[in-house]
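Lay summary. Proteins are chains of building blocks that fold into shapes, and those shapes determine what they do. In this project we predict the shape from the chain. Here is one chain we studied, written as its sequence of building blocks.
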Amino acid sequence: VLMAPLHEFVGIVPVTHISPIPGVKPWLLGVASYRADIFPVTDIDGMLSGRLCTLTHDSRILIVSLQDEYS
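And here is the predicted shape, written in a compact code that computers can read:
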């Protein structure tokens, strides 16, 4: 995801509603929707370093489409 080709980047959107998923790793924040599609919301820094981010009204989600699936 960190080095995806430019054509796989779908958009950068504000954080709105993220639905949590019970029983997953803490860095998998949940799922959200964008243009009627559901995608997972992952804290990449949390996954790589263990330091979870704090979401604020200034936070943004980078949406990447990997082989026609959102990440």
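What the prediction tells us: The CA atoms of residues 43 and 54 lie 10 Å apart.
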